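Changelog entry

Holo records now carry the ligand SMILES as an explicit input line rather than a separate metadata file. Below, a converted record for nicotinamide-adenine-dinucleotide, shown in the new format.
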Amino acid sequence: MEDAQKILVIGACGQIGTELTLALRQRYGGDAVVAADLKRESDLLKGTGTFLPLDIMDKMTLQVQVRRHNIKSIYLLAAMLSASGEQQPQLAWKLNMESLLNTLEVAREEGVQKVFWPSSIAVFGPDAPKVDCPQDAWSTPATVYGISKLSGEQWCHYYFTRYGVDVRSIRYPGLISYKTLPGGGTTDYAIEIYHAAVRGEQYPCFLKADTRLPMMYMDDAVRGTIDLMEAPVSRITVRTAYNLAGISFTPAEVAAEIKGLVPGFSIIYKPDYRQAIAESWPESIDDHTARRDWGWAPEYDLRKMSEEMLKNIRPELAMSTKQ
Ligand SMILES: NC(=O)c1ccc[n+]([C@@H]2O[C@H](COP(=O)([O-])OP(=O)(O)OC[C@H]3O[C@@H](n4cnc5c(N)ncnc54)[C@H](O)[C@@H]3O)[C@@H](O)[C@H]2O)c1
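Structure line, unchanged by the conversion:
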């Protein structure tokens, strides 16, 4: 990357944004990556590069900052996630769509060369194939979050074909990480469960024992994102969003894995409104197009991920999930 090619990460203090910003700074240098968020700068980012307070709903300020910092790539991670979105559907739609449209418009007007915006497996609804859901499965999403992601994918496609903005996207599955806390998704249980195990608490799971969902360890997601953004433009055949698979498992399977590593760990099941969201999604994802186009391959399985999570969550910082 040339020196002058600066990156802006919006939503940099969230679950993915924090780790992606740190990885981008490691790769391109602290000065090359500007972090922005509505929240105050997170402790993990402090001292690693420039931080801007930014509300992505304010297009004019975004435009000024893109110009001021000579931004050539934008990673837009600000959004309202699936479970939170079902609590506030109008607000979820507004944030998820306006943030993307503001970013795409500023990219077009200011000659930003590349944009990354994540989609989600939530684009698939109950009528999509459950197992190995294909790249081009057509379906009606069951959540406002899924509707916003499906519409967002079409906007990305439109800005690429109409204006030549090089927008790239991945349909992330549930992302699992230890550095930051989850942001209100239906797959958050798969993070909380490790925190409960580290604290020595029983975990009250909000999904049923046999609810199988596609998941991915954060290191794989961050590597996949950077690989997609670095792939030559000629390799990119999907201008909506790429399916990406990591590991598919159920709460019972991850609990059994944890029991093997933390003897005495126990789980109980108290499904809530998130069960219906989970049941509307596929169990596993077919990602052969991403593998073919830009060489995607996950590195973490359930065992390797569980070991990493339990090794790295600090007991004094683990969140309590006691009810
Ligand atoms: N975490 C997952 O499992 C998952 C799965 C699929 C897709 N995704 C997608 O990845 C992206 C990031 O997800 P995440 O889990 O990191 O979310 P998160 O909620 O943890 O982080 C989002 C960040 O955006 C910031 N933000 C919110 N409104 C803003 C605004 N108006 N202006 C500026 N910043 C604002 C928040 O303060 C927060 O730091 C989202 O688009 C999400 O839909 C996440």
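Spot-checked after migration. The two ends are 49 Å apart (CA to CA). The pocket of nicotinamide-adenine-dinucleotide is lined by residues 10-11, 13-17, 37-39, 54-57, 77-79, 81, 95, 118, 120, 172, 174-175, 183, 185, 187 (CB under 6 Å).
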